[in-house]
Design a protein that fits this description.
It is built from eleven helices and no strands. The chain is mainly α and 494 residues long. This is Shootin-1. It comes from Ceutorhynchus assimilis. One of its GO terms (biological process) is neuron projection morphogenesis.
């Protein structure tokens, strides 16, 4: 719908009188129609959306449940397979252990049989060699015997020859038997020696193989040792470099700490000097404001007392303020230096105590200001001055015109703010003689009475009488006639 409306808005329609397209009216109509068309949808769309979300979440939940069941089934099947495999594994381990035992037994038996076979083989070889040698000797001996027999037949008679031949054959047979026995003994010894020689050769071959492996391992170890030595040298050089860098960094850190301590000391000194200069500036500003008021010569003692009291109050306030500011700064510096120290809580408590003391001092100052604001009882009326002709209005000197402004400056510098009631226009009804007497300087301030009450001296210091007398004079000036009202207000604003 919105797309159709937009398309209809883009089509220009013209009035009967002019050729200017009415785009604004169409846009307004389309906006109104879109607002009216979307109102019922807005009411039904959230419910429909939430319903769709609920259905989608239900479908997802069901799908997750089915997947969970499938996963549980597959997990059970896998557990069963795992158990069967564990049983098979244990059975195979037992079979393997039995077969290993049989293999060890058979290997030992085969080694023994091989040794016996080697011994028998060597014995057979030695015996066959000895037999071949004996047969050769026997054939030679047989041939020689035949030749000897033929010779003996020709030389002697048969009887003598037969007896000698029988005795020679018997001796020859005994020699042959002895030779056979020695041959058998030697063949057994040779077989044993041959088996030992074969075993020694096998051991030699194994030792050669081990020697080759050990030589290879030794070469590898040497290479590793060389690489490790190089790495160790590099690490030593890096360690030495890091030590040098660390020493340089420690030196720089010490220098930075010394610089920081020097800067802190300089900042402290500058803060002290700034506080002292601020105090002196405030005191001098007060003195200048009070001296510009231009009090009369007769009220000089009271003004001096007033100045002294105001200066004392201001100095005490400035001293306390600077003291508390220094304590706060020192505590803040300690907190910055010892952030991770366990004394932070104690320092915070001390800071709270100092803040409480500062608030008490501020409350005392406010109480003193309020006491200064409260005017004392009015002084007794002064003697009537001589009458002045009323042909011309009395001219206020410039020094007295600024009395109002100077008093307001005094109040601002002291911290005393006048109430709304004091800012009302002065009411008429006071004799002009008193005003003229004040202008001529004949009016004297009332001396401060000595209090016989047993009040503490701190209240006397906090509420000076000179300020109250000045406020009384201001109250008497407010009761001037209407003719002088506008002029005095203009002078005070100047």
């Amino acid at each position: 719908m919105n797309q159709n409306n937009r398309h209809t808005i883009a089509i220009p329609k013209y009035n009967a009188g002019s050729n200017i397209p009415l785009r604004r009216t169409l846009s307004r109509q389309s906006s109104n129609s879109s607002i009216t068309s979307t109102k019922p949808r807005l009411s039904s769309d959230p419910a429909h959306r939430w319903k769709q979300k609920y259905e989608e979440s239900e479908e997802k939940r069901k799908a997750l449940l089915t997947e969970k069941e499938k996963a549980l089934r597959s997990l059970n099947d896998l557990e069963k397979k795992h158990l069967n495999l564990q049983v098979k594994h244990e059975h195979l381990e037992t079979e393997l252990f039995e077969k290993n035992e049989e293999f060890t037994k058979l290997s030992t038996a085969s080694k023994n049989l091989y040794k016996e076979y080697e011994t028998l083989k060597n014995q057979y070889e030695t015996e066959t060699g000895a037999m071949a040698r004996a047969l050769k000797d026997a054939t030679q001996w047989y041939k020689e015997n035949k030749q000897l027999k033929r010779k003996t037949l020709l030389l002697a008679d048969k009887d003598t020859v037969d007896e000698g031949v029988d005795a020679g054959e018997a001796a020859h047979d005994a020699d042959i038997e002895n030779l056979n026995k020695t041959i058998k003994q030697l063949s057994t010894e040779v077989a044993e020696l041959q088996t030992e020689l074969d075993s020694v050769r096998q051991n030699e071959f194994q030792t050669l193989e081990l020697n080759a492996k050990l030589s290879e391992d030794l070469d590898l170890v040497r290479r590793e040792n060389m690489s490790l030595q190089k790495n160790l040298d590099e690490l030593r050089t890096e360690h030495n470099q890091l030590l040098r860098v660390s020493q340089m960094m420690t030196k720089e850190m010490e220098e930075m700490r010394e610089m920081k301590e020097c800067q802190r000391n300089e900042i402290k000194d500058l803060r002290k000097e700034a506080g002292e200069q601020k105090k002196e500036r405030n005191i001098l500003a007060h003195q200048s404001n009070l001296l510009l008021q231009g009090l009369s010569e007769e009220s000089g003692t009271d003004s001096l007392m007033l100045l002294q009291e105001i200066e004392n109050l201001k100095r005490t306030i400035e001293d306390e303020r600077t003291k508390y500011e220094e304590e706060l700064n020192s505590l803040q510096e300690r907190l910055e230096d010892q952030e991770n120290n366990s004394h932070i809580e104690i320092l915070e408590e001390r800071l709270k105590l100092v803040e409480a003391e500062l608030q008490e001092a501020i409350a005392r100052a406010e109480a003193a200001e309020q006491n200064l604001r409260a005017p004392p009882p009015p002084p007794p009326p002064p003697p009537p001055p001589p009458l002045i002709p009323m042909d011309k209005p009395p001219v206020v000197p410039l020094r007295r015109r600024k009395s109002r402004a100077t008093v307001e400056d005094i109040a601002i510098t002291i911290g005393v703010q006048e109430t709304a009631a004091e800012k009302k226009p002065p009411a008429p009804g006071v004799n002009e003689d008193i005003i003229n007497a004040i202008k001529e300087g004949k009016f004297t301030l009332r001396k401060r009475r000595k209090d016989n009450n047993n009040e503490p001296k701190e209240k006397d210091k906090e509420t000076p009488k000179a300020v109250s007398e000045l406020l009384n004079i201001l109250g008497s000036l407010r009761r001037a006639p209407k003719k002088r009202q506008s002029q005095l207000i203009a002078d005070a604003q100047q």
